[in-house]
Amino acid sequence: MRTAVYACAALAAAMVAFPAPWARSQNQAPVRIIVGFAAGGTTDTAARLLAEAMKESLDEPVIVENKPGASGRIAAETLKNAAPGGKTLLLVPIVVPVIAPLVFKQLSYDPVKDFAPITQVANYQFGFLVGRDHPARTMAEFVSWAKSHPTQVSFGTPAAGSLPHFIGVMIGRAAGIDMVHIGYKGVAPLATDLIGGQIPASVDAVSDVIELHRAGKLRIIATSGAQRSPLLPGVPTFKEQGFPDAEGSGWIAMYAPAKTSKPLIDKWSTVIVKALRSSRRCVRRK
Predict the structure, then answer these.
(1) Domains of the chain from N-terminus onward
(2) Which one of 35, 45, 167, 236 is separated from 94 by 20 to 30 angstroms, measured CA to CA?
(3) Tens digits of per-residue pLDDT, 153-185?
(4) How much is the pTM?
């Protein structure tokens, strides 16, 4: 699997910051990595790769616990209420700590007061997709189709209030077309509906849909990076196709509960960062 996620099969060799005596001194309740989205997406994949390597390093169980819904806000509340003892971590994309506080007036968490940042784990581009049988192969062709079929224009994203949601809105405004947004609960149901023709287009992380694109089940016609994705050198960016404002990337980061001690935060950070940088057997998702 090619991903911009730096999670490595040899993480254990780099995780020297957690010596065996420290690991054994803890109670054996599993370390939980909370993920606010359904299984199969970029964040979930990164969490599972990290959990597997961390389990070997710590000599104790590390599990991924999916708590999908509300664009990751349910998972965020779980971390807020967790004990700061090093047993609960949260792996989330930018939408949870940065975008949600700007969009929603009332949140059950405050990312500044309730979270302790550990480290960034991944970054990735977004893509604009159409179904296999859709006539558009460029953004210009999609806009032309949309203007000819105004009652059929909608786009899906894995969650409302996410970066893909805003990218779709920017595209619609720049093109002068009214694209109705449909928010899904994760990547899988979104891809299913796009493949089945229930929606004409979607915006999602390239890493979530690259294999479907390669298999010919969906078609990525634009990407959001400043430069073309190395995974899709034949697909032009939004900027190349006349949408300079639709440029950006997402990231995933690891957090602990706010009152987690600094020594413990530093240990987690050292472990993860060294692991992401050192292994030659990394899996990359971009």
Answers:
(1) 7-124+250-283 (3.40.190.150), 125-241 (3.40.190.10)
(2) 236
(3) 999 998 888 889 999 999 999 999 999 999 998
(4) 0.77
In the structure encoding, which two tokens stand for residue 126, read together?
A: 């977004």
Contact in structure between 183 and 110 (CB atoms under 8 Å):
no
CA distance 146 to 170: 15
**Dist. CA 73–CA 104, nearest whole Å:** 11
Characterize 46-66 residue by residue with b for buried, 16 or more Cβ atoms within 10 angstroms of its Cβ, and e for exposed.
bbbbbbbbbbebbebebebeb
User: What band does 195 get if pLDDT is binned at 50, 70 and 90?
Assistant: very high
In 3D space, the residue among 96, 10, 1, 3 whose CA is nearest the CA of residue 276 turns out to be 10
- Give me the amino acid identity at 246: A
Reported as a single tens digit per residue, the pLDDT across 90-105 is 999 998 999 889 888 8
Structure tokens at 26: 């803890």
DSSP-derived secondary structure for 218-265:
EEEEEE-SSS--TT-TTS-BTGGGT-TT---EEEEEEEEETT--HHHH
Inter-CA distances, 148 with 143, 190, 206, 237, 248, Å: 9, 24, 28, 24, 29
